[in-house]
Amino acid sequence: MTQARQHHIQVVAHRGASEDAPEHTLAAYMKAIEDGADALECDVRLTADGHLVCVHDRRVNRTSNGRGAVSALELADLAALDFGTWKGREDSAESPDWGDPSLTSVLTLERLLELVADSGRRIELAIETKHPTRWAGQVEERLLRLLGRFGLAAPATAAESSVRIMSFSARSLHRIAAAAPTVPTVYLMQFVTPRTRDGRLPAGARIAGPGIRIVRNHPGYIARLHQAGHQVHVWTVNEPEDVELCARLGVEAIITNRPRQVLSQLGRG
Fold first, then answer.
1. The whole model's pTM is what?
2. Sequence-distant (≥ 6) Cβ neighbours of residue 94 within 8 angstroms
3. 56 annotated active-site
4. CA 226 to CA 210: how far, in whole Å?
5. What is the model's pLDDT at position 214?
6. 14 classed as catalytic
7. Which member of 24, 51, 56, 233 is catalytic?
8. What local confidence, expressed as pLDDT, does residue 90 receive?
9. Out of 14, 24, 51, 230, which one is annotated catalytic?
10. DSSP 3-state assignment of 209?
11. Is the model more confident about 94 or about 44?
12. Environment class of residue 181 by beta-carbon count within 10 Å: exposed (0-12), middle (13-18) or buried (19+)?
């Protein structure tokens, strides 16, 4: 792997530095920025009172001390929950002390955008819309409105954008492409379907987002995606041999729970 090639691969912190800190918390994103990640990945869901929050699952049961669907809870309900101590219970008998509770309370997308804006360097954001949801198109509408407040919804060109929208839902990406044509869109894939086998992506999608299993099982598919004119952003890449494979295949971005280790492996640590 050449030094030049390594520097072309963007290292994206998946839910923040989520191996070291609780996913989707301010603690995880602050750690990712400190570790030198080029970009931050987050999932967004809409609360019952219309706020975009960074939570992966439909329900809060796994990652907090509460219960219920994000879409049925208001922001105040979520703000009362602890999104941090489960991480300690999962990893060992001894829970780490994350200190300030604001570092592990529910994270709004607005707060994450503020963190990036105040970081002092260019940090890109890869925002995944989660579907299906009872709010359907309202998610994309609210997302673009919020990005607009930060001056991020209408870049001059896709290449200049510091934000991209990702989804497994082609319809979600189509909505984004129609409303904000210069914001890059990433079509996430768990499997290679007959429709995408030749390297084509659904209308409105510009970047391919295959899971690492696809890359391992069908390495030739990456060349087909590149030949079709698409960048390739791979998730979730944690093992050194998978990082090496992605680098060898020339992917443009690696999404990982371990940004510090991946940067180090790519000679940028």
1. 0.94
2. 88
3. yes
4. 13
5. 98
6. yes
7. 56
8. 53
9. 14
10. strand
11. 44
12. exposed
